[in-house]
What we know:
Alpha-Beta Plaits; Rossmann fold; alpha/beta; 6-stranded mixed β-sheet; 4-stranded antiparallel β-sheet
Amino acid sequence: MLNLKDVTLAFGKNVVLDDINLQFKQGEIVGLVAPNGTGKSTLINVILHNLTPQKGFIEYEGTRYQTQKDTIKLHQEICSFPEQNDLFPFMTGRDHLNLYADLWHNSEKPVEQIITDLQMADYVGHKVETYSLGMKQRLCFAMVVAANSPVMLLDEVMNGLDPQNVALISHMLLDLKGENKLIIMASHLLSNLQEYADRVLFMGHGQIIEDLDNKEQHNRYLKMQSSPKAVKILSGYDFETLPNNLILLPLAKIGQEKLTQILTELVDADIQYSVERIDIEDLFNKFYN
Length: 289
Ligand SMILES: Nc1ncnc2c1ncn2[C@@H]1O[C@H](COP(=O)(O)OP(=O)(O)OP(=O)(O)O)[C@@H](O)[C@H]1O
């Protein structure tokens, strides 16, 4: 279990994390979602002890960053996604994977298997200086997999990847979750997170403004684009309009008979609608306008 207790971190007067309390379990994929510059990377850097909070602490399996020995111990348990700039241009991809496997004492997960799983065999023997951005990105992800640590922190892992590689890595993330890894990932690819994240934390104003259980059966909503006709039909009902002009009316708040009446009126007025659960993109629009 990874815990953040009363964590506050400010850069001067800019309070980026304001008394944050969080608990993470093994075997869960947690998405960190917020607009640019909100504090996703800062949160990850605090967990890694690259930044020390002014208040509060991080604890993993009962150990905090207190002594150098604690730090070494925690860094064996937690691995973060390297930055592309941290790669060594004159080393091959395979060298990088072996390096991470050695540093994190991974003896269980064979590097060659990771290369096969991530379809890197045709380039992993070449020097990194010859790689495209997407190839480097896949290598950075493969390095975390090679570390095989119980906690994996992934900041924008899908950046610059084509749809096939996004799908490949998404699939691998689910395998890692099946191996009981705790995966915390900052991502702007909301529809992708929607597919597999167990939990999504929306950050804002130094706080976690929503801790969404993405696997829970959410209430369903009647959704449509706002227009004077739609607003007229729905007047008297408790709907909300998101900043992107999407109307959401929770079905739980209307009876079957009234719903039938609304749907008939929408069809008559030629207004397109759908009945769905609220998704991460809708929530993003709701929280950040
Ligand atoms: N080393 C630093 N010194 C001063 N301010 C910083 C530093 N690092 C980050 N900040 C500030 O902290 C805030 C949060 O930045 P952070 O990088 O955590 O955001 P983010 O949510 O990860 O953004 P992005 O989506 O762009 O990656 C921003 O206001 C940023 O300017």
